[in-house]
Design brief:
32 strands; elongated; Immunoglobulin-like; 4-stranded mixed beta sheet; mainly beta; 342 residues
């Protein structure tokens, strides 16, 4: 048997003498076309079949599933742009056929403000139609997650909200800056950090604070308002953790730590720095007796890091505590020797 196209759309062709393909159907200028196909056998006996093909100008999405944003943040605006067309550039209408009733489409922009109850992986389906009633559909999965937020509340000792308090998020391995002359590292105007290490925010009138988009890691939360302070140790921040609520802290008058550094005879203790790890608090020995004082420390537990510029000594960590309006006396802190003392 052999097949031949007697009549039909431009550029139509047959494959394997039995499959009709018309690649130009989408841009055919008429609403219909007549196809006539003739089949003949070896003796030249033939038959013809004819039919009418309706040409529909259907819209199609230019977006693919891979083009659509696949993540939304709860309590934030999700938006994306939809692109579609038909051959005659007809006006197109978009509609959400699956998804939250809160999803809207205006000027080809899909918008949604998911709430906490929307978390999960819902499917969104959008339909585009032209005036002839022809439509196309695009569906994609979206993951709704909470923002990674650390939040808490600060109070004064009388129980009132600590509004306008400054809150710092300090990496736990942070080693404070070198002390500045005539300026305490933690002065009442704010804490001094090396290279802007600490992210910070300010409490509102309710004493509440929040911080998002912190890098993954463990932080100390250090807060101050005038001459009162608080310190909370070791708050972990991980990707996808959602909201972490920190119990309320009370800002209290600070305390201090004092002591003396002991070195081998002939070595100057003024070569030693004392750092409260994970805070900006740092001190140096003030005299040849090795006297040091860390002032204006919030109440809490501290890990003090003693380090000398002399090669003869290895660093030493000392754990201690600070109470409000009290001074913790460490006595003599002797640094261990690393080798032969010159």
């Amino acid at each position: 048997m052999s097949f031949a196209i007697l009549e039909g759309g431009q550029a139509a062709y047959l494959v394997a003498d039995s499959i009709l393909i018309w690649p130009a159907a989408w841009d055919y200028p008429s609403d219909s076309v007549v196809f006539s196909i003739q089949v003949c056998d070896a003796e030249k006996a033939c038959d013809t079949v004819s039919w009418v093909v309706a040409v529909i100008d259907a819209p199609v999405f230019d977006n693919t599933v891979a083009d659509m944003s696949d993540t939304a943040i709860a309590d934030s605006v999700y938006c994306d742009t939809l692109h579609a067309h038909d051959f005659h550039q007809s006006p197109l209408e978009f509609a959400v056929i699956r998804g939250s009733s809160e999803i809207s489409i205006t000027d080809n922009i899909i918008r949604w403000h998911p709430s906490g109850t929307d978390t999960g992986e819902p499917e969104i389906s959008v339909q585009v139609c032209n005036g002839s009633g022809c439509c196309d559909t695009l569906s994609w999965q979206i993951s709704v997650v909470w923002k990674d937020i650390i939040r808490g509340r600060l109070l004064f000792e009388d129980g009132s909200p600590a509004d306008s308090a400054r809150v710092y998020f300090v990496p736990v391995n942070y080693k404070g800056p070198v002390p500045l002359r005539r300026r305490r590292a933690n002065s009442v105007v704010g804490f001094y950090f090396r290279d802007s290490t600490a992210d910070s925010t300010t409490t509102d009138t309710r004493g509440e604070y929040s911080m998002e988009s912190l890098g993954q890691g463990v932080y100390n939360i250090l807060a101050m308002s005038q001459d009162v302070y608080s310190l909370r140790y070791s708050v972990a921040c991980t990707v996808g953790m959602g909201i972490v609520d920190i119990p309320a802290d009370t800002l209290r008058l600070p305390g201090s730590i004092q002591g003396r550094v002991g070195l081998q005879a002939g070595h100057d203790p003024r070569t030693v720095l004392i750092m409260a790890l994970g805070t900006p608090f740092v001190s140096a020995c003030s005299d040849t007796l090795g006297t040091f004082t860390l002032m204006d420390l919030p109440t809490g537990a501290y890990n003090l890091h003693f380090v000398s510029t002399l090669d003869a000594y290895v660093p030493l960590d000392v754990a201690t505590n600070v109470e409000s309006e009290k001074s913790t006396d460490l006595g003599v802190v002797s640094l261990p020797i690393s080798g032969t003392v010159p």
